[in-house]
Amino acid sequence: MSNRILGHFQESAELKIQAASALVQPIAQAVELMFAALSNGNKILACGNGGASAHAQYFAAALVGRFERERLPLPAMALGADAAVLTAVGNDAGFHEVYSKQVQAFGQPGDVLLVISGSGDMANLSAAVDTALEREMRVVALTGRDGGAIGKQISDADVHICVPHERAARVLEVHLLTIHCLCDGIDVALFGGDTDD
What we know:
By secondary structure, the chain is α/β, with parallel strands linked by helices. The chain contains seven helices and five strands.
């Protein structure tokens, strides 16, 4: 068991080192896109399924609350956090529309949709991306493997951050590190300097 646990740590560390050079540029582009939206009075909507939904909620909480410094709250919302909305839309329209309906309700031109998917092939997330693009929003897609359908949907004006790995657990770990990079980058871009902690 000890060797198995060590193997998890080693594989995770190796992937992060290998992925860094490929991901640094799209992460920086995503920070610029989100900074531009927030500084223009727009907001960020975030969504995902399962563990990716938890990551979306964590990202929104770090913007509304704080990441590593005290600052004014930033407008962000996780679309998977409201169980009543999810079950109402899921029951009435189907699970494939649980996020697209919310993007249609809350998304405005200039807002950003952060969509998180390990495979990039979830129909409800693809529908949310379609709706965001129709509403003249920009999309940051955080995916894994080959990026799936979502990676092919987005335009050149959007940002695709694709973790080059097949294993879901490893992709999710790099997604969390990427979210930390996004939160830190947004804080520095908006407020400058280093963190207080």
